[in-house]
Amino acid sequence: MRTVSASDVESVVVVGSMASRHHQERARRQVMKSLLWELDQMDVRWATLESRGAAADRRDLAVVGGLRNGRRLSRRLAVTHERPIQEPMLWIPDAVAGAAGDYRCGDPRHYQELESRVRMIDAGDV
User: Fold this and answer.
1) 120 has which bridge partners?
2) How far apart are CA 13 and CA 34, in angstroms?
3) How sure is the predictor about 50, in pLDDT bands with cuts at 50, 70 and 90?
4) Which residues contact 99 (CB under 8 A, 6 or more apart)?
5) pTM for the complete prediction?
6) pLDDT band at residue 33 under the 50/70/90 scheme
7) Which residues have C-beta within 8 Å of that of residue 29, sequence separation ≥ 6?
8) Are 6 and 114 contacting, i.e. CB atoms less than 8 angstroms apart?
9) What is the DSSP letter of 51?
10) For the chain, what percent of residues have pLDDT higher than 70?
11) How many other β-carbons are positioned within 10 Å of the β-carbon of residue 58?
């Protein structure tokens, strides 16, 4: 965490409470919608999501298309997928998300190092 906290990186983490693990894809869509909306509002121009395979990536992009068609996401935010081997910086969101998850489960150690550079948004029940 020291490496992340020493960097210039600012993070947005969207968290939610998943009622059932059987609805994991639905929860991912809800959290992704909130995250992309927040990034768009911050005038971010590029978001790289970790690839989960061709079919899952297409489902993600369908969500993006739906947000754009519903005018809830502008076209200025480009959304792409990469594998961590292609984009090593994807380890940063994994580390921040892990620290945020630990924090919500009662272990604040790592999150406290990052807290000043993280904006956590609670999406509620997803």
Assistant:
1) 13
2) 10
3) very high
4) 1, 110, 111, 113, 114
5) 0.89
6) very high
7) 59, 63
8) no
9) P
10) 100
11) 10
- Helix or strand or coil: residue 52? coil
Q: Are 73 and 36 in contact (CB under 8 A)?
A: yes
Query: The tokens of 33 are what?
Result: 């919608």
Tokens coding 80 = 């792409």
79 sits in the region (left: phi over 0; alpha: psi -120 to 50; else beta) called beta
Residues 6 or more apart whose CB falls under 8 angstroms from that of 62 comprise none
**Residue 79 burial class via C-beta count within 10 angstroms: exposed 0-12, middle 13-18, buried 19 and up:** buried
Count of beta carbons in the 10 Å neighbourhood of residue 66: 13
Task: Give, in order, the Cα–Cα distances in Å from 56 to each of 27, 38, 60, 121.
Answer: 14, 22, 6, 24
For 116, the token pair is: 């000043």
With residue 80 as reference, give the H or E element that holds it: strand 78-82
Assigned token pair, 58: 């297409």
- Angstrom CA distances, 107 to 47, 96, 111, 116, stand at 29, 13, 8, 17
